[in-house]
Amino acid sequence: MKKVRRAIISVTDKEGVIEFARRLSGMGVEIVSTGGTGRMIQDAGVEIIPIDSYTGFPEMLDGRLKTLHPKIHGGILGMRDNAEHQKEMTNHGIPPIDMVVVNLYAFEDTIAKGCKMAEAIENIDIGGPTMIRAAAKNYNDVAVVTDSADYAAILEEMEAKGGTLCNDTRLKLAKKVFSLTARYDAAISNYLGSLPEMPDVEDRKSFPDTCTLQFSKIQDLRYGENPHQKAAFYASSGCGLAGAAQLHGKALSFNNILDVNAALSIAGEFSETAVVIIKHNNPCGAAVSTKSVLDAYKHALACDSTSAFGGIVGINRTVTADVAEELNKIFLEAIIAPGFDEDALEILKSKKNLRLMAAKEFGPTKEATELSEFDIKRVSGGVLFQSLDTGSASELKTVTERGPDEEELKDLLFAWNIGRHVKSNAIILASGSRTVGIGAGQMSRIDSTQLAFMKAANAELEVKGSVLASDAFFPFRDNVDLAAEKGVRAIIQPGGSIRDDEVIAAANEHNIAMIFTGIRHFRH
Q1: How confident is the model over 350-386, as pLDDT tens digits?
Q2: What pLDDT shows up at residue 260?
Q3: How many Å apart are CA 426 and CA 416, to the nearest integer?
Q4: The pLDDT of residue 104
Q5: Which DSSP letter does residue 252 get?
Q6: Before 281, cis peptide (omega within 30)?
Q7: How far apart are CA 221 and CA 236, in angstroms?
Q8: Cβ burial 336-372 (10 Å sphere, 16+ → b, else e)
Q9: What are the structural domains, with CATH classification, of the chain?
Q10: In this model, does residue 444 exceed pLDDT 70?
Q11: How confident is the model over 247-261, as a mean pLDDT?
């Protein structure tokens, strides 16, 4: 147990620091502080020693030089049980510093909001990382505090144990330091590596020369995709699924997490009330409704109630009791929504294993991290980076003699948005803002088209008058001929085939409206 007698406090994030300093001072801890932090603590009535008085050297270079001094770093790095260290510290008038309370300049937040290079550079912290790394290296003698969330526990331990902190606590705090500095340096490296050759140009390259990413483990999982595989869930931020709260049920499995993420992403695509049911990372039914959540759910379920058994449901509205009653009628693995009414929770909790997830942000999130810009896939010996598939069908081109009417266009755009989340080759049949058949993951497009119609027939859903969305172009006219045979009235697809003219001619022969998006949505 090591007693804390002297602390240096220098923080960018000042949340809770006044109360923390006040209670440290109340335990007899001498506080050395810098610039704005010191003034704020002093103005609150807590006695401090300004850093320039402590070192005998002024803060200078617009604050770039404050703590880089032997009296600071000698006090942090000196080992208390090393007689030679103690002798040198005494000879040079270097008192020990027992606690370092520092968090770093907000570099990541600065670049996330958009800034010029000069501003980014000024938000690269030098003294902060140096101090906390020194303190973490000497954790046996020095406590290092980088997170205001730790203030309460540290004070509680010190007040209970006569101003001391145990070695386990100091080691735990030190571990956080090296994770923090690794992430911090990675953010700087990623940013600078993404700049063009001329640094006075603001535009950044799409991909940095080197990319270093950091993830924090949320939990170990029972196993991976299969029982013989080990797995864990790591977060890049507290956004999206990583920030969702589990309200009930068994722990999420590896496969559950993938499917819940798909449900969150698809339901979050829509501003209207939307419900999607996921099975094996593909939607087996989806619908939007202007009436109610219950209406959307019933239509989504009707698309493929067989596959929905054991599925994952995503709902972009609060779940109410009437919806909960319907959800409870089949076996589901998980439900994710922005929230659940108390009555709905009581109903759904009757199934002890059903996982209930409440997401703070429903749909796409803007994370303040370099990772948010990329979709990352592992391959042997490396990883593939790509920008996220956020392209929308904003520039539609009618290529047939007949264009879609208002209702057809609405259904086409609905089907197109669902198709972005279906494994290629993907064919979506829709009618009345609901899916009536989904063909996913087939090796040929005609197979996917046939599968979509088969699914609709199995569900006894009407396809006459429906619309069809294809995630990529049609290589042959056979898909259009089959669609016409089944009564499809309109088609949306990217276009770009060498046989586009033949495909368009087929659509004209059958009086099918066809629009091109110019954007493909392969999903491998």
Answers
A1: 999 999 999 987 765 554 444 556 788 888 888 888 8
A2: 96
A3: 10
A4: 86
A5: P
A6: no
A7: 17
A8: bbbbbeeebbebbeeeeebbbbbbebbbebebbbbbb
A9: 2-193 (3.40.50.1380), 245-358 (3.40.140.20), 397-516 (3.40.140.20)
A10: yes
A11: 94
The residues that bridge with 277 in the sheet, in sequence order, are 285, 313
DSSP 74-93: HHHH--TT-HHHHHHHHHTT
Closest CA to 446 of 419, 421, 484, 475: 475
The DSSP H or E segment spanning 136 is helix 127-137
pLDDT for the residue 201: 47
- Concatenated DSSP letters of 288-343: EESS-HHHHHHHHHHH-HHHHTTEEEEESS-B-HHHHHHHTTS-EEEEEES-B-HH
**Which token pair is 318?**
């609060």
Mean pLDDT confidence for 152-170:
91
What is the spatial distance between Cα 507 and Cα 140, in angstroms, rounded to a whole number?
A: 76
Question: How far is it, in rounded angstroms, from Cα 185 to Cα 427?
Answer: 45
Q: Token digits for 454?
A: 């088969």
Percent of the chain with pLDDT over 70: 95
Residue 431 has pLDDT above 50, yes or no: yes
The pTM for the full model equals: 0.79
Give the residue, 390 or 130, on which the prediction is more confident.
Answer: 130
CA distances 36 to 7, 12, 17, 76, 121, Å, are: 16, 9, 12, 22, 20
The answer to whether residues 318 and 284 touch, using CB atoms and an 8 Å cutoff, is no
Which residues are known catalytic residues? 137, 280
Six-digit token string for 425:
């080759």
Supply 347's token pair.
């109903």
Q: 446 in helix, strand or coil?
A: helix
Rounded to whole angstroms, the Cα distance separating 69 from 87 reads: 19
Tens of pLDDT along 37-76? 888 998 998 888 888 878 777 777 776 777 788 888 888 9
Closest CA to 97 of 179, 214, 10, 213: 10
Q: What are phi and psi of 379, to 5 degrees?
A: -130, 170
Q: How far apart are CA 6 and CA 28, in angstroms?
A: 9
